[in-house]
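Q: What would this chain look like folded?
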Amino acid sequence: MNKKLKEKLITIGDLAKLANAPIQSIRYYEKVGLLKPIFIDKVTSYRYFSVEQARLVETIRFCIELDFPLKELTSYVNEEGTLDYIGLLTKSRELAKAKTDRLLKGLEQISETEKLIAESSVIELEKIYQRESAPKILTLEPEKNLGDGLLCFYSVAGPKVYSFKELPENSEGQLTLPQASYLFIHTQTKTIEDAAEIFADYINTAEPFITIEKSIITGSYSQTSPVREIAVTTGDN
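A: My prediction, written as structure tokens:
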């Protein structure tokens, strides 16, 4: 290599500074074939790189942040060290978009959880409230605790409890609960089987009725004793 060309090269330390990357990472990228030194001094074994390779190091690090499998990364470099940059960037864009979508979904979940906490914060425990509820379309499963909550059919034959999942509007389900006025209570001590006792002063428990139980997210959330909402329709539409 001629002297003028060598003078334009940089050491591995300089490359690390330019790319804001640990030297150990750069050595590893070379070891697995992702990065190829422009020149290796036969006497000192020092590696020299081009300034332009700093962008490649940055790209490699970004791909790793995107959970790009290392084995797949190395497939974009041939034995001569030639990088399929277009292919790598195309794949990186796909991964970045997928990760962005996951992050946005996570942010939506955070916002929804914050909203639920705000709603529950104004409800006192063990106190009965009343509210209007929109129609709900549900599917039912006999196993408990496998859905969005529990639903219980009360009758003279005794309570029958199911897990339920709430479906989007206009879906086909096994049960549709109409828009109605509901009584509900937030509790850490009672369950759906206690509904007849809880609401005895408000509904005719001698007649068949339906009650629903679901977990409530609170600002101070006990994993061992979570707050539950138990609700029952009053029959007033």
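The two ends are 88 Å apart (CA to CA).
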